[in-house]
Design a protein that fits this description.
The protein is an all-alpha fold and about 400 residues long. The protein has 19 helices and no strands.
């Protein structure tokens, strides 16, 4: 499957994208509004960054408790329920007089329930599309995320100039409701992909199974750590350029869109695996120049160029799926989403702390340097792994792995 036209002929692909677009738009507008609200109330780069990205830390807890549900619960019901839970939580965040502590309690609860979302969506996409359409479909999914961020951050920035952050949060809550309705009406009710009840023991056992393969570990670390450190830099846009944060986020999302389109549609499958390291280096390198404290125009260009590197996730997700049995695809992608979200939250917390101690520009530069170092280290470790032959007749990392049951 090599054309977008063929891709959109697949039943349910369009409503799947529309429901995600509404959810992503709500997240984008809501995050910018919340970060602005907290920064205006506290003047703290750390609290502003953590309010936008810290909830993702809670996904780490959710990943250890709930992730087996990604394959063992009906996907349409879970995605509808998540959208409704986010709508309710975001409406609560818009209440006047809510303390900063209460704000963080709500967003951490949202992060906890969100831990199921990545695995459920990834596994459902894997079911909706044929195997040869996954990378192209995932690239469209990521491109939509990028376009939604461009529109969401640009619109959110404009709305914040006209409306209060609390009003923008209410608009985000309405978008979550739209996502729930589209999911319920546009997707088919499917049974769970795996048998057994979701449980803590099933989650831990399957996570351990997924982590037991060295090739998968390297894929996971490549997906999580360089990305998380760079998102730490992204989390400082509000404190680096308070009046232009929406512009920086929108330019970053535009770069992400371009990268996903190029890698998913234009790059031949045989070439894609060789791009993982160059793309991860591109993701971090432009932020090294923030030590010079560039103005808004140059910062926007740097953010756009760097974000092309987020397309490395497409390459590494394709590798992860080639190393994973089909009945564990949902939890494998859920573990990826949970780990990535957690590392992004950690990155935001580290970057915010560094910004408190130094400056946002210095913190962004240090986070980028850390990302480059990790990428080069993982590339060196991966060279040895790539030279190891696969067991004849099997996919590497899949053979001899029993299905996880409870």
């Amino acid at each position: 499957m090599r054309s977008y036209r063929t891709l959109f002929r697949v039943p349910e692909f369009s409503p799947f994208l529309l429901s995600f677009a509404a959810f992503a738009a709500a997240q984008t507008v809501g995050a910018l509004a919340l970060g602005t609200l907290v920064f205006r109330a506290t003047g703290s780069p750390l609290l502003s960054a953590v309010s936008m990205f810290g909830p993702q830390l809670a996904q780490l807890v959710g990943g250890t408790l709930l992730l087996s549900g990604a394959d063992r619960l009906p996907p349409r019901a879970i995605l509808s329920g998540l959208a409704l839970a986010f709508a309710a939580g975001t409406a609560v965040l818009a209440l006047p007089g809510l303390s900063v502590g209460a704000v963080f309690a709500v967003v951490l609860l949202q992060g906890l329930v969100a831990s199921l979302g990545g695995g459920v969506r990834g596994g459902l996409l894997n079911e909706i599309l044929p195997k040869d359409g996954y990378v192209l479909g995932r690239s469209v999914f990521n491109m939509l995320w990028g376009l939604t961020q461009v529109a969401g951050f640009a619109t959110g920035g404009a709305l914040l100039a006209l409306l209060s952050p609390r009003t923008c949060l209410l608009l985000a809550a309405a978008l979550y409701l739209v996502s729930a309705v589209v999911t319920r009406l546009g997707l088919t009710a499917r049974p769970p992909r795996a048998s057994g009840r979701p449980s803590l023991s099933a989650t831990w056992r399957t996570n351990a199974l997924l982590w037991s393969s060295r090739p998968r570990r390297l894929a996971y670390l490549g997906l999580w750590v360089p990305n998380g450190l760079v998102v730490g830099s992204d989390s400082l846009y509000v404190s680096y350029a308070p009046s232009a944060a929406g512009t920086l986020y929108a330019c970053g999302a535009l770069g992400m869109f371009v990268g996903d389109m190029a890698v998913g549609r234009l790059v031949p499958p045989a070439v894609r695996p060789r791009l993982a390291t160059p793309l991860r280096l591109l993701l971090a390198a432009p932020y090294l120049f923030f030590v010079l404290r560039p103005g808004v125009a140059l910062s926007a260009v740097a953010c756009a160029v760097a974000s092309v590197g987020f397309a490395a996730s497409l390459v590494l997700q394709e590798r992860l799926m080639s190393l994973t049995p089909d009945d564990l695809a949902g939890q494998a992608l859920g573990l990826h989403a949970t780990g990535m979200a957690a590392l992004q939250g950690v990155g935001a917390a580290i970057a915010g702390t560094l910004a408190q101690l130094t400056s946002p520009a210095t913190a962004m530069t240090l986070m980028a340097a850390g990302s480059v170092t990790v990428t080069l280290t993982l590339a060196a470790l991966g060279r040895h792994e790539e030279r190891q032959p696969a067991v004849p007749g099997t996919r590497p990392g899949v053979a001899s792995e029993p299905a996880a049951t409870d």
